[in-house]
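User: Show me sequence and structure for the first protein, then do the same for the second.

Assistant: Starting with the first protein.
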Amino acid sequence: MIGAALLVTGYWYAGVVAWAGVWLGITMLLACLAHFRVKDPISKTATAVVFISLIVILTIVNADGLILPFS
């Protein structure tokens, strides 16, 4: 919920999107690790992998906002 709230806040403050990407990226990385740990099939893990790929792209595009998020 925090990541979603930060993404919505990014509508007004573009720099916040990068921090939301960092937060959601960590969350999805932990989700991938949890799926691998319980030996889920790739079909169950694929959603987390796709989301982390999109989040990495989102964070790279908005990386300049990491320095001054509310500017």
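Switching to the second protein now.
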Amino acid sequence: MKLLRFGKIDEEKPGIELENGKRIDVSGFTEDFNEKFFESGGIQKLENWLKDNAADCPKVSQDTRLGSPFSRPSKLICIGLNYAKHAEETGAEAPKEPVLFFKATSAIVGPNDNLIIPKNSKKTDWEVELGVVIGKKTSYCSEEDALDHVAGYVLHNDYSEREFQIERGGQWVKGKSCDTFAPLGPWLVTKDEINDPNNLNLWLKLNGETKQSSNTSDFVFNVSEVVSYISQFMTLLPGDVISTGTPAGVGMGLKPQRYLKEGDVVELGIDGLGSSKQHVKNYKG
């Protein structure tokens, strides 16, 4: 299934995109796609409910705004330097263990919402990433069992302000967490629709020019490894997101470097997970 949320900001309702591309409102089944929904086996229950009720669900227009395909999770955990070629372009060695950092969940927006360049930013950058959505409470899980704890996958643009992240000391989080820096979606695609998350093409274009084009087979640490690894240090809750890192081609790695400015358009996508587009705007206080 392809889970989505639609409507005005902070007023989103849950929906589904059907195989024919049409969208329906499933708020008759659940009030939201949230931690409670996932932990109660909501995906399977919704699938069963749709067999008898899909035809009666209200239709959703294709021009209706999409929000993040699930409500704000307890955690958005990111993996740094998780593509071999990206580590190389930054001048770093491939890590021996996954590099973990948090991104504030207040940065989450819909897939096609505007990117707002933050106040005093000079180096706002792009990063197409595969997001892994946790389906049930996970603690100390093995790599062999890791995918049993996954609900599905989502497209994520891990926007980053490089000066805030790298040049101003401290941890990376302040360069990762600005408002609008985590567009998710268009959908949460349930794991049964993705044969191998470690073999997906992903791409990003800036103003129509391809900047990133790779495959998750270039992971340093694959999906099972990162889910298991993170669960050794913290409990993952249903709806939590693990963003698995970005491939080569970010603005910081270009020669000369290239950062986003007002008027730019960023488009990105992953096989089976759809695509998104963000128009770049300056912060206006």
